[in-house]
Specification:
It catalyses: hydrogencarbonate + NH4(+) + ATP = carbamoyl phosphate + ADP + H2O + H(+). By secondary structure, the protein is of the alpha/beta class. The protein has one domain: Acetylglutamate kinase-like (Carbamate kinase, 3-Layer(aba) Sandwich). The strands form four sheets. Strands 3-9-2-1-12-16-17-15 form an eight-stranded mixed sheet, with helices on both faces. The chain binds adenosine-5'-diphosphate and magnesium ion. The site of magnesium ion has 2 residues, from loops.
């Protein structure tokens, strides 16, 4: 049966540098076009960890060597990462579809995600980005208004907040394209974080988690399925331990219990489980799936992965 699916691509779908990304998007496109061939409506969301780090580093280096004067705000770095990843992905998806005789238009929507200026995450930035600085350099940057924290004895790094997405500004555009049978790439890198100021949207110094942004997108476009594709085939409890157990299914109550028991690592599996719970709880008949990129089709057919319902 035809489903409306939001696919959230993790780091392994894009690689960690330019040449890896160029190769990775080919494999990724095969997995996605398999779903288009089945007749599903698909929106693709993706992360941007290495890419936004690279862009930020490049500008920091240019500022340090005084090639350019002003540093680039984090919201702009996210926008650049969306553009660059979207370019590679839409190009590869188009080619894969043409190779299979499918004529489905594909585009990337520069997506802004509204965050709450009072989100507690702004008071406690946790996401390290960019290069390492000495104590002296860090003190100078702190004077300029940056937030830096000591990172595991390796030096100082900028940290940014990772607030929760509240709304997606371009949701109606994304829906209209989907409704007309097109393939859409949206909320790349968690979306460009913006704060509402009357009619103005002001870029925020933050990076939104792509798992939460994908869940929000799936809710707003009334999707049936949130599919989080990552580097493991299934979710486990006692992950990495002797009594590790891979799960085929997870109810909301079980998921909450396992969160409390600390089975899911913060920063990797925990946001996926929390994002899945949010989506499943937001309407009846909404399901989430966590599996490997290459197993997306099998997972949607119920043959593998972990289903959260
Ligand atoms: P992505 O780039 O797809 O967001 P992450 O590395 O952030 O990937 O998260 C996926 C990783 O989470 C897996 O590769 C695995 O190493 C780790 N992980 C942590 N806890 C668990 C768990 N309980 N079950 C399965 N994987 C887990
Ligand atoms: Mg992750």
């Amino acid at each position: 049966m035809k489903k409306r699916i939001v696919i959230a691509l993790g780091g392994n779908a894009l690689g960690s540098n330019l040449s890896e990304q160029m190769k990775a998007v080919k494999t990724t496109s095969k997995a996605i076009v398999d779903l288009i061939e089945e007749g599903h409506e698909v929106v693709v969301a993706h992360g941007n960890g290495p890419q936004v780090g690279m862009i930020n580093l490049a500008f920091e280096a240019a500022v340090r060597s005084e090639v350019i004067k002003d540093n680039i705000p984090m919201s702009v770095c996210v926008a650049m990462s969306q553009g660059y990843i979207g370019y590679d992905l839409q190009n590869a998806l188009r080619e894969e579809m043409l190779n299979r005789g499918l004529n489905v238009p594909v585009s990337s929507i520069i997506s802004q995600v509204v965050v709450d200026k009072n989100d507690p995450a702004f008071k406690n930035p946790t996401k390290p980005i960019g290069s390492f600085y000495s104590k002296k350099e860090a003190e100078e940057m702190i004077q300029k208004g940056y937030i830096l924290k000591e990172d595991a004895g390796r030096g100082y790094r900028r940290v940014v907040a990772s607030p929760k997405p509240v709304d997606i500004v371009e949701k109606e555009t994304i829906k209209a394209l989907l409704n007309s049978g097109q393939l859409v790439i949206a909320v790349g890198g968690g979306g460009i974080p913006v704060i509402k100021d009357g009619n103005h949207l002001k870029g925020a110094n933050a990076v939104v988690d792509k798992d939460f942004a994908s869940s929000k997108l799936a809710q707003l476009i009334d999707a049936d399925f949130l599919v989080i594709l990552t580097a493991v085939e299934k979710v486990a409890i006692n992950f990495g331990k002797e009594n590790e157990m891979w799960l085929d299914e997870l109810t909301i109550d079980e998921a909450k219990k396992y969160i409390e028991q600390g089975h899911f690592a913060p920063g990797s599996m925990l946001p996926k489980i929390e994002a899945a719970i949010e989506f499943v709880n937001s309407g009846s008949n909404r399901k989430a799936l966590i599996t490997l990129l290459e197993k997306a089709k099998c997972g949607i057919e119920g043959k593998t992965g972990t289903i959260i319902k």
